Amino acid sequence: MEKHEMMSLEDSRQLRDKMRFFEHELLGNHHIDPNLYVEYDVKRGLRDSAGKGVLTGLTEISDVNGYKLVNGRRIPADGQLFYQGINVQDIINGLNGRRYGFEEVIYLLIFGKLPNRDELARFFDVMGNMEELGGRFVRDVVMKGTNANIMNAMQRCVLALYTYDDNPEDISPENVLRQSLELIAKLPEIAVYSYHAYRHFRKDETLFIRNPQRGLSLAENILLMLRPNGQYTELEAKVLDIALILHAEHGGGNNSTFTTHVVTSSGTDTYSSTAASIGSLKGPRHGGANLKVQNMFADLKAHVQDWENEDELVDYLQKILNKEAFDHAGLIYGMGHAVYTLSDPREVILKRFAKALADEKGMTEEFELYNRVEGLAGKLIMEHRKIFKNVCANVDFYSGFVYSMLGIPQELFTPIFAIARMPGWSAHRLEELISANKIIRPAYKYVGEHTDFIPFEER
Ligand SMILES: CC(=O)SCCNC(=O)CCNC(=O)[C@H](O)C(C)(C)COP(=O)(O)OP(=O)(O)OC[C@H]1O[C@@H](n2cnc3c(N)ncnc32)[C@H](O)[C@@H]1OP(=O)(O)O
Ligand SMILES: O=C([O-])CC(=O)C(=O)O
Questions:
Q1: CA distance 418 to 423
Q2: What SS3 state is found at 160?
Q3: Structural domain for 376, as ranges
Q4: Which helix (H) or strand (E) holds 79?
Q5: Cα 443 to middle of ligand 1, angstroms
Q6: How many domains does the chain have?
Q7: Of 4, 83, 287, 415, which sits with the fewest C-beta atoms within 10 Å of its C-beta?
Q8: Does residue 89 sit within a domain?
Q9: ipTM value
Q10: What InterPro entries is this protein classified in (predicted)?
């Protein structure tokens, strides 16, 4: 339902005025002295003073490295990412540009080994059986209550799938495996159809719904379902496939996967856990950064006259850091990482594709702008925040640019990340259920005062 259908404009204005009192109550009564974090040695963001994550779990699924050990000392290094022990770079090289690889990566992450020809064929078969959403679900859930933010629409649809599951509460590994594969298979349809529903019901554009085709890779099916004419080139589908591979998994500590661990550890169902992780990924400091990067560049282009003028670019970036430009959050999106120091290996690969696509599509000038900002931003952030850790571009820096060159609309940038990360979340949920099986419950120190209860009449 639209907002104005729920409440008249006058009523909502009055409610906003009434709420002002409570906003003051909230902001006036909450403040924790930042010095207390130091005094009690609280690991803000579960990170120590050097930025290293607090050790909270064990995993065999992936390894994320931003440092190397030299004579026992941690030295910043080019980033490396391993899925089940295999370097992602090697996985991509091993495809030789001939095969689609995302399905193999799903298999690797969940079952711990690369599939042979027979295993992959069986896997494709099962995923093909699971991908259909069903007309009833599309009509009754996807098309109803459309949302401009497709991540929220996806959460709603995922939670609704609970009702369509005959055995939703069973958290045995066998049942969670079945639910996870179904979600991996269905998320592309959920995302793309939610986008079409939004375009139709909110923007008055023509609605078209195309079924996925059995036997096609997940990347191909996304483009097939998305495009009005269902056409795509092999190069486009292969680039999307690589992007899916690169986003599939990133250790247990990234915000959305840690969410999976936390929520799973309470013993809740797969749909609740997945919806929570999608909610986390949506955040602009995490997967939502890919959309922010695009909007940030649109804002930059509106404010910087000469894209080649470094002084002008520096001036704009300084304004961002001073919270005077763009969204006033003080963040240069697509830059920085909790683990990586000199480089994010996924960004290095995506940048290569961004360059090749940009040259092909006559967008070299735009690519050069990204490249120039990348070259300037890290140093500016380090100076501005007075940090000594190197700040590099992350996976989100070029991904939106690549997607836009593939004709993928902005609304689907972060949903594509969610589609890609679903196998990673699933592998970690299964690992948590099978191996950890203990509720996650860290401590918070109380730093308020204990005061006497005041009877209602005396307040
Ligand atoms: C898939 C992914 O999730 S990749 C990350 C996508 N997110 C973004 O691109 C958003 C922009 N980047 C950031 O906000 C951060 O770099 C994060 C969230 C990715 C990592 O944050 P942290 O682990 O806190 O980074 P780190 O410890 O190196 O940061 C040190 C300081 O530099 C600041 N900083 C780091 N990156 C940036 C940035 N891009 N712009 C401005 N300031 C930054 C941090 O806010 C932090 O300041 P604080 O100590 O006052 O909180
Ligand atoms: O590891 C992190 O903190 C964020 C990240 O890059 C990811 O989840 O892909």
A1: 9
A2: helix
A3: 289-405
A4: strand 73-83
A5: 24
A6: 2
A7: 4
A8: yes
A9: 0.98
A10: Citrate_synth-like_lrg_a-sub, Citrate_synth-like_sm_a-sub, Citrate_synthase, Citrate_synthase_bac-typ, Citrate_synthase_sf
Structure tokens that stand for 17 in this block: 């005025």
* Dist. CA 336 → ligand 1 center (Å): 5
Q: What pLDDT, on the 0 to 100 scale, is given for residue 51?
A: 85
Reported as a single tens digit per residue, the pLDDT across 264-308 is 999 999 999 999 999 999 999 999 999 999 999 999 999 999 999
Residue 87 lies inside a defined structural domain of this protein? yes
Distance from the alpha carbon of residue 253 to the mean position of ligand 1, in angstroms: 15
Do 366 and 416 have their domain in common?
no
What's 298's domain CATH number?
A: 1.10.230.10
Instruction: State pTM to two decimals.
Output: 0.96
Same domain for 219 and 159:
yes
Same domain, 328 and 430: no
Q: Whose CA is nearest to atom 3 of ligand 1?
A: 286
Separation of alpha carbons 179 and 188, rounded Å: 15
Spatial neighbors of 162 by CB under 8 A, at least 6 apart, are 168, 269, 271, 272
Handedness of CA 390, 395, 396, 401 (dihedral sign): positive
Identify whether 32 is part of a domain.
no
According to the model, what pLDDT value does residue 5 have?
Answer: 61
